[in-house]
Amino acid sequence: PPLPQQHKSPQSHQVPTCSIREREAREEVLRILPLRREAFRSSSEWAFSVLAVASRDATAVQRSYRTLMRKLHPDKVSQSEQVEQTIEMIREAKELCEQ
Question: For residue 2, what pLDDT band results from cuts at 50, 70 and 90?
């Protein structure tokens, strides 16, 4: 006779997931880190790509900067060397946009 099947709870099949904040931070790191200045025609073009803004509009630059920094804030997500590099790139991009 066949052995009775053991009932497994649905949770036993789930892979541990990270928080939404961690996922959003990881997505931004993966988007920003590959952006190398050398690949762009100008530093300002690179900065717009890092901040994901279309123009030098001060309001858009500030809004994007704050949103990105909020996503990568040390109190919100676990820090790594990649996250720190990304934060530095965001700061540099904001400074370039403000010049």
Answer: low
